[in-house]
């Protein structure tokens, strides 16, 4: 080591020169090691973050799939509810079990509801139609009008799931059922002449 240092012109009588002569080498080595360590840590962290990103993408995909499943299940439940109520009211109608006072009570309730609805839950035309229909006596509402009320209510309920929308749907079915019940009591067989027509 002494020979190497003498060849470089470093006087060993003054050892502190050796330290100063070595300083640039130490700086270069320490900076190089620091850069290598930082590059290694950065590479390692990049791998970890890409793994985390991949996991988040999988989680987002699962959440999206789960939302779709819940939405389909909820739509299926709405359809089942509509079908069950429609069949039940058709059955009661064909047995002649829906009475005048029940239909009138439903008509009065819907007239009250639509007199206070200020916001436009459905199109302006549909809201005006519902108000016009429910301002009539139930005996003046035709089966076709009641069916249209039920369709508006069903569409509205599918869109926002509100209680008023479902009441509208059921009111249309009950009034339709009332007219069918009247026909059955008169000895007619409306199920043989679909679609059901109004008074003959």
Tell me how many strands there are.
0
Would you identify the regions where 5 or more consecutive residues have pLDDT less than 50? none
Largest sheet: none
Strand content: under 5%
Global mean pLDDT:
78
What letter string, H or E per element, gives the SSE order?
Answer: HHHHHH
Helix content estimate: over 70%
The dominant shape is rod-shaped
CA-atom Rg in angstroms: 41 Å
Structural class: mainly alpha
Domains (count): 2
Distance separating the two termini:
123 Å
Query: How many DSSP helices?
Result: 6
What brief labels describe this structure?
200 residues, mainly alpha, 78% helix, 0% strand, rod-shaped
Overview of this protein structure:
With 200 residues, the chain is an all-alpha fold. Helix content is 78%, strand content 0%. It has two domains: 1-84; 95-192. It is built from six helices and no strands. α3 (100-116) crosses α4 (124-134), α3 (100-116) runs antiparallel to α6 (163-185) and α5 (143-160) packs antiparallel against α6 (163-185). The N and C termini lie far apart (123 Å).
């Amino acid at each position: 080591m002494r020979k190497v240092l003498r060849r470089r012109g470093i006087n060993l009588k003054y050892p502190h020169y050796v330290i100063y002569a070595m300083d640039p080498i130490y700086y270069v080595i320490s900076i190089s090691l620091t850069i290598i360590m930082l590059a290694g840590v950065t590479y390692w962290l990049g791998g970890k973050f890409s793994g985390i990103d991949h996991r988040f993408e999988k989680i987002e995909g699962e959440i999206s799939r789960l939302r779709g499943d819940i939405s389909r299940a909820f739509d299926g439940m709405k359809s089942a509810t509509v079908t069950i109520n429609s069949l039940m009211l058709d059955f009661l109608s064909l047995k002649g079990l829906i009475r005048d006072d029940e239909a009138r009570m439903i008509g009065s309730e819907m007239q009250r509801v639509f007199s206070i609805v200020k916001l436009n839950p459905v199109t302006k035309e549909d809201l005006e139609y519902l108000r016009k229909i429910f301002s009539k006596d139930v005996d003046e509402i035709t089966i076709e009008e009641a069916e249209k009320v039920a369709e508006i209510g069903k569409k509205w309920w599918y869109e926002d799931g509100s209680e008023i929308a479902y009441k509208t749907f059921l009111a249309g079915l009950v009034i339709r059922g009332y007219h069918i019940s009247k026909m059955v009591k008169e000895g007619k067989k409306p199920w043989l002449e679909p679609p059901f027509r109004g008074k003959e």
